[in-house]
Write a structure and sequence with these properties.
Length: about 650
């Protein structure tokens, strides 16, 4: 299970009353059964979802609901000749909301056997426990005082590669972290067990019958510390190890965030197992796990199920605060790890010999599961607030409504890199696998601030790099998710300016150029200059190194018009010419015109017949550019006042 840890001062606080229940849905899967149930705890209860599995894939131990829609569950498989013990699984499955087995992975051989608990990692991989069989000769060489074979233990992390295949990406083996003071001529010899608590004494007998001396049964992962906690039945202890190591480092004693390789970073519950004095807390331990950081009473603590360690031998759960010291744990050499006892223990009314779990809920309540009977929600003061009878599940868990019925939102931009002044269309989508008729609302904001929208596909035109955030809410459930998309804005070049020297037109500098004549692209005209051959309107489009473009104003070029009068249509008249700035342009056709100074700038424009008043302009020669029926004509115009 994903755990988030913030290292803050811990104190066990006596809370007078938390009468309300927490969360909505409780998951349980009866052992050796073919169904898993998600029940609506707030409604009496009512079964919200039922999964039904193949009769060949019965539930064997733990079942978890991954965020939203997928079960991670253990089932049974035993290869011929594989080692056997209680809690054997051999296979796990990921099962989607609609019952599809998305991944089934088997791990069982003559020397290995997956068993007991599993753990989903945030990266999608799965961590599980396996027997690691050692022969009697291997055990004796390791310093065992017995000639028996040993069911050693290992942790395996596997990444999915196909529907029934996976790649092992990390391993940790208990056999690499043993010690003994029995035989100095054998491996793992130390002169003092108590001074080596980072190692497991191969000859300590906590009640297990060889070859099954240790018997791991619970596993959990802390994402922020990148550490794993495990519980070990016959050692009556929890152990914390570093997951940040490579497999090679996990086999040694250096490396990883803690600098200790695969050695134990912390152990608790039975000081005698490493030769220290102190009270043995557990009498059959299961379900070691971290308490989530949002728990009001025990944030970031460790907890475990104490099958027969409560008052009068009843089942209990214990919570305690480990002595965090960065990625390590404070420890005084030769003594027991602190604390000396639990910070909180709840003793139930029942007693179990094996299995079971507890879950510390954020509001201070606890979900307590009797694997042979019922599931209970208990307040911090011990009041039973809710009961599900006859569950018979090795593990049970409570989930918030939006953990189960949550949505997954995503955001995109039609163009994620745009030029200043251009548009892009944003789009928000959501998937709600568990919902029948989801209906969505949208709330868009931006960084930098300034953009707000409730549309699913708003159009934006940012002037600078901007990140757009959207909160999508399923109105049917009230559950939301947030997504974001960034749009990069590239600078646009300044508007180019055209100048002319005779008939050679020049653009201000840029990376690339494209010339146009009367609005039409001039093929091959891609230089900074262009030699004009016709009277008309010229423009240049420049593009900078970012690929952004800008277009110049129209530049009116008039070619050499000596004798141009003969090309002017007889039905277009300009009179008088010369004039004092006031004259007529008359034609029977529709036309437009520009009055252009000698330097090429347009000083006046108009349409169709009428009087033109240029008396505000200085004396001199101008050109009248007349455009009609797709043709462009030019005539000299002389102003004399």
């Amino acid at each position: 299970m994903k755990r988030i840890l913030s290292l803050i001062l811990f104190a066990f606080v006596a809370i007078s009353c938390y009468p309300q229940q927490w969360g909505y849905y409780t998951l349980y899967a009866p052992k050796d059964g073919t169904q898993a149930f998600l029940i609506d705890t707030a409604n009496s209860p009512v079964t919200y979802k039922t999964w039904t599995f193949s009769s060949s894939a019965k539930t064997k131990y733990s079942t978890y609901l991954l965020p939203g829609d997928t079960l991670l569950r253990t089932t049974s498989y035993t290869a011929a000749g594989s080692p056997g013990m209680g809690g054997v699984t051999g296979k796990f499955q990921k099962v989607t909301w609609d019952g599809t087995v998305a991944w089934e992975y088997t791990y069982s051989s003559s020397t290995t056997q997956m068993h007991h608990d599993i753990c989903a990692l945030p990266n999608g991989n799965v961590l599980f426990i396996s027997i690691d069989l050692k022969t009697s000769s291997e055990a004796q060489q390791a310093g065992a005082s017995s000639s028996s074979t040993f069911y050693s233990e290992k942790l395996v992390e596997v990444r999915q590669t196909g529907p029934t295949t996976g790649e092992i990406v990390w391993e940790w083996k208990l056999w690499d972290h043993l010690c003994q003071n029995y035989n100095s001529s054998k491996d793992n010899y130390v002169s003092s067990i108590v001074n080596n608590p980072q190692l497991l004494n191969i000859n300590y007998n906590g009640g297990g019958n060889l070859p099954d001396r240790w018997h791991m049964n619970g596993i959990d992962y802390n994402e922020e510390l990148d550490q794993i906690v495990i519980s070990m039945h016959y050692m009556n202890s929890v152990f914390v190890i570093d997951h940040s190591t490579t497999t090679a480092e996990a086999a040694g004693h250096t490396g990883g965030n803690s600098g200790k390789g695969g050695d134990f970073l912390y152990r608790w519950g039975n000081p005698a197992s490493y030769g220290a004095s102190g009270t043995t807390v557990f009498n059959v331990i299961h379900d070691a796990h971290w308490v989530s950081s949002d728990n009001v009473n025990y944030p970031n603590a460790l907890a475990a199920y104490n099958n027969q360690g409560g008052t009068g031998g009843k089942t209990a759960f214990d919570v305690w605060q480990p002595p965090y010291d960065g990625y390590n744990y404070s420890y005084t050499s030769g003594s027991a790890y602190s604390p000396s006892t639990y910070g909180y223990q709840y003793t139930s009314t029942f007693s179990t010999s094996n299995e079971g779990n507890s879950q510390q809920l954020p509001n201070g309540n606890t979900l307590l599961n009797n694997p042979q009977g019922s599931i209970y929600e208990i307040s911090p003061t011990g009041t039973v607030l809710w009961t599900k009878t006859g569950a018979g599940s090795a593990h049970a868990y409570r989930y918030e409504k939006c953990y189960v019925r949550g949505i997954t939102a995503s955001a995109e931009a039609s163009v994620s890199t745009i030029c200043q002044g251009d548009n892009s269309e944003l789009s928000a989508t959501a998937v709600a696998v568990t919902e029948v008729n989801p209906s969505y609302t949208y709330v868009w904001t931006s960084v930098p601030e300034g953009f707000n929208s409730s549309e699913s596909n708003p159009v934006i035109s940012p002037s600078e790099n901007t990140t757009y955030n959207v909160i999508v809410t399923n109105t049917a459930s009230g559950c939301s998710d947030e997504a974001s998309v960034s749009v990069q804005v590239m600078s646009t070049p300044e508007v180019p300016v055209i100048s002319a020297e005779e008939n050679v037109l020049s653009s201000t500098a840029s990376a690339t150029y494209q010339w146009y004549f009367n609005g039409n692209l001039i093929a091959g005209a891609t230089s900074q200059t262009y030699t004009a051959t016709e009277t008309g309107l010229y423009q240049v489009e420049v593009t900078n190194a970012s690929g952004c473009s800008n277009m110049s104003e129209e530049y009116s070029y008039v070619s050499d018009i000596s004798g141009i009068d003969k090309h002017i249509s007889s039905d277009v008249s300009v009179f008088p010419n010369p004039n004092d700035g006031i004259f007529e342009i008359v034609s029977e056709k529709e036309f437009s015109y520009d009055i252009v100074a000698v330097g090429g700038s347009v000083v006046f424009s108009g349409k169709n017949s009428g009087t033109v008043n240029l008396s505000h302009l200085p004396d001199g020669m101008y050109y009248v550019i007349i455009k009609s029926d797709g043709l462009t004509k030019a005539e000299k115009l002389v102003l004399i006042k």
